[in-house]
Amino acid sequence: MKQAPYDQVWCVFDKDDYPDSQFNEAVRLAERAGIRPAYSNQAFEYWMLLHFHPHQGSALHRKDCIRLIHSALRELGFPFDGADKRISKELFGLMEGREAPGGPSRMMRAIQRARQIHEACRHLSPAAAESSTTVFQLVEALLQHR
Length: 146
Description:
6 helices; mainly alpha
């Protein structure tokens, strides 16, 4: 970050089972260093879920999140077991696709859902905001360069 003139630097991470104090400190350390945190509480899969499911931000364990993603993708004829953390071209295309012709893309719906959940959080403790994600902010920043 100090060696090249970047407009923005992001750090993407999950809460997982780390203690609340460690997670909150990671967010604060990033922000103090001028790094934008793109976190998911509990897991990155929550961001994926918001592309397919209108979850409202109540506490959702990552195993249940994976189960919901699996169910939504199975309805679309797409295999997903949650074991492989990579997002294939096909899955990315599905996440970018539309639920209905002429409707918003799933990605835009995920951004909208994540923003609504994020705005409803008090933000005193990112660790207490389960389930939420700020990955939508990173995606919005990337979309500006599309």
